[in-house]
Amino acid sequence: MKTTIIDDDLVIQHLSAAAAIEAVEAALTAQVNGTLTAPARLRATLDDGDLVFTVGAFNEGYGLRVCDTVPTASDDQITVLWSRDGHLRCIVVGPELGRRSTGALGAAAIDRLVKVDAQPFIGVLSAGQQAYTQLWAISTLRHITAV
Q: Which residues of 23-60 form beta strands (DSSP E)?
């Protein structure tokens, strides 16, 4: 089985907000049903920061994401996924998948917590990449007229 390598350009080109939200909602449903294992993040302390590991498992496979808190100009991270039979399926390099999954999680929360007929504007307390991916995902579920 061949391992697929995905970078930020491929994530941006091929991951739709709808697909990201669907994946997050499937994970939330799996958590409620007891078929998702998602322990607390693990941290490995380095001299000037930490490596932070997020790990999890579900019916189809398991994986991890590693990012760092070392003060650098880069926010690169790596996500690695294995199938249940132990084959390395995919490696995602770069921060974009994490940003977009966080945006999708925010959209799923808003969809459940805010009335459908609520005012079509939103406030975002940020101006960086996370702010963009929050709006990217939310705008697929709600018509936003002002930010």
A: 42-45, 50-58
Question: Which of 100, 92, 82, 93 lies closest to 137, judged by CA?
Answer: 100
8 A C-beta contact, residue 130 and residue 98: no
**pTM, entire model:** 0.87
Coil vs helix vs strand at 5: strand
Q: Report the amino acid identity of residue 100.
A: R
- Supply 37's token pair: 């294992």
Parallel/antiparallel/unpaired status of strands 4-7 and 78-83: unpaired
Torsion of CA 127, 65, 20, 131, to 10 degrees: 0
Residue 43: strand pairing partners? 52
Tell me the sheet residues that pair with 138: none
From first to last of its 147 residues, what are the pLDDT tens digits of the chain?
899 999 999 999 999 999 999 999 999 999 999 999 999 999 999 999 999 999 999 988 999 999 999 999 888 999 999 999 999 999 999 999 999 999 999 999 988 888 878 777 777 777 778 888 989 999 898 888 888
Pair type for strands 61-68 and 50-58: antiparallel
